[in-house]
Amino acid sequence: MLECREITKIYGRKTAVDNVSFKLEPGKIYAMLGPNGSGKTTLMKMAVGLVKPSSGGFYYNGKPVGPESRREVAYMSTEPYFYNWMTIKDVGQYYDDFFDDFSMEIYERLIQRMELSEEMKTKSLSSGMMAKLKIAVTMARRAKVYLLDEPLNGIDLLARDEIIRSVLEAAGEDTTLVISSHLVDELEKVVDAAIFIKESHLVEMCGVEELREERGKSVVDLYREIYGHGGEATC
Amino acid sequence: MLKLMKYELRKTMFSKFILLLITAIAEIAYLIGVFFDWDRGLAIGLVGLMCCAMFGILYIGIESLLVFHRDLNTKQSYMLFLTPTSSYQVLGAKVIENGVSILLTGAFFAALAAIDFTVSVIYIGGVKQFLDLLHEMMVNFQVEINISAQSLAMGFFAILVSWLMMVVTGYLAIVLSATVLAGRRFSGVVSFIIYLLLGWVCGWIVDRCVPVSMVNDTLEFVLTIGALFIEIIVMYLAAGWIMERRLSV
Q1: Contact between residue A30 and residue A220 where contact means Cβ atoms under 8 Å apart
Q2: pLDDT for A167-223, tens place per residue?
Q3: Does A67 touch chain B (CB under 8 A)?
Q4: Of the candidates A40, A35, A38, A60, which has an alpha carbon nearest to the alpha carbon of residue A49?
Q5: How close is the nearest chain A Cα to the Cα of B184, in Å?
Q6: Does A149 fall in a domain?
Q7: Looking at residue A95, what is its pLDDT?
Q8: Rounded to a whole number, what is the distance in Å from the CA of B72 to chain A's nearest CA?
């Protein structure tokens, strides 16, 4: 499915991602974990071709990622990116125009669930509302791979449940979900595997069950071990 | 591609609406001048309409470059580059939409000028004079068509190629600024210098390719236009190629 091979991204003098390789399997939900600046966002952006690697590359079903892979790989950016003139309805229409796997019916249902109105202008949305809109429009696609960058950022506790519920609805045997977040303990409940990124490197990629059974640790424990006690692991 | 063009058009709707609004104000001034014999209004309207036509069309061309710059340098770029479309399609949609916009705007102002002319001739000159004038115009028009159809076509192609050259050179300079020069100091200034340089290099190449003193002017014109078209295609492909391989948004 989605695979990255020895991928490196250098911005000027800073190495954002350094020689990272991993392979994502269908039917699994992954947590991509790491502190700010560790390279999670750059990795996700390279997976959809928004950022070009300095060396190595991302491959989808054996082919380099590009316009074709974007038909089946959905990405939710952590930053707001909709055109200022758009209403929530326009955003849905835009996705409907470009993505064959987009369902307007699911979008309308998610918008309603997130307590948003189709007539709202995107430029007037609060950060929480914007996060909900990004999730709604991304999860209204029936994609094969979902890459969600900090989907729970700026979301209150109650809305978080709605978002996690919407995300989990997309999970299936042939679907891969990658969720990056700082809320490690909350993610641990729903993910099958975790990818730990530290200072541009892939530290570890492990199954949550294997971690518990073979090493007697939780994802939170391993997170604390890798990144130090407290700090990023708190929610 | 049509969907991309639809959204390109939507991005520039506001400025087109403003242009339409100013045109409407100038048109009202012009018509008041005609109907109420108000010379000052007539002059203001006429100058306003001419300015709207000239600067409006020029601005539509420049705005295309401004929008492209914004598309590559803000997070809104995700809207374009998350879709399953290639960089060549993105660029192509922008070029075509801009060309169609300029053509339609030109046609709109030409039609408006024809209507205004007709209205003023009918109102100021009277119906008989207007019909005489129309008859005279039709006779002249026939003669003119026979004489200048070729030069008309040559003029059209010259404008088309000049506009394409301006837009595609601008796109290439913006792409270079967002890729090769990204993050460097004075990348904007450098890309503008590249834009000027590209224009000069293209002209220099055409001068070398097309013999200066050809016996047949038409052949020289066709060769020049052909050479410029090739340069435009090369620059378009180069911009698309760089975007596909180097552009990070």
Answers
A1: no
A2: 888 888 899 999 998 778 878 888 999 999 988 999 889 888 888 888 888 888 888
A3: yes
A4: A60
A5: 9
A6: yes
A7: 96
A8: 11
> Which residue's structure tokens are 């290439």?
B172
Whether residue A234 lies inside any domain: the answer is no
- Encoding tokens for residue B55? 């600067």
Would the pLDDT of B132 be above 70? no
Point out which residues pair with A59 in neighbouring strands.
A3, A64
pLDDT band for position A76 (cuts 50, 70, 90): very high
d(CA B13, nearest CA chain A) in Å: 10
Taking a C-beta distance cutoff of 8 angstroms, is the pair A164, A190 a contact?
yes
- E strands, chain A, are 2-11, 14-24, 29-33, 55-60, 63-64, 73-76, 145-149, 176-180, 193-198, 201-207
Letter for the amino acid at B249? V
Query: How many domains are there within chain A?
Result: 1
Measuring CA to CA, which residue among B15, B22, B31, B13 is closest to residue B50? B22
Backbone angles phi, psi at A219, to 5 degrees: -65, -40
Indicate the domain borders of chain B.
Answer: 1-125, 148-249
Query: Cα separation of B192 and B6, whole Å?
Result: 29
Q: Write down the ipTM of this complex.
A: 0.82
B84/A50 CB distance under 8 A: no
Distance, in Å, from the CA atom of B181 to the CA atom of B194, rounded to the nearest integer, reads 11
Q: Which residues of A touch B79 (CB under 8 A)?
A: 81-83, 94
A98 contacts chain B (CB < 8 A): yes
CATH number at residue A135: 3.40.50.300
Are residues B249 and A70, on separate chains, in Cβ contact within 8 Å?
Answer: no
Among A42, A46, A52, A123, pick the best mutation site for testing chain B contact (most B Cβ within 10 A): A52
Q: What distance in Å separates the CA atoms of residue A181 and residue A34, rounded to the nearest whole number? A: 8
The alpha carbon torsion through B206, B209, B213, B214 (nearest 10 deg) reads -110
Cβ proximity of B115 and B107 under 8 Å: no
Q: Cβ(A136)–Cβ(A107) under 8 Å?
A: yes
Domain of A142? 2-229
The length of chain A is 235
User: Residues B190-237: pLDDT tens digits?
Assistant: 888 888 998 888 888 888 877 666 667 778 888 888 888 899 999 999
Phi, psi for B166 (deg, rounded to 5)? -60, -50
Chain A residues touching residue B82 (CB < 8 angstroms)? 48, 50, 70, 75
A230 touches chain B (CB under 8 A): no
Q: Which residues pair with A42 in a beta bridge?
A: none
Does B76 sit within 8 Å of A81, measured CB to CB? yes
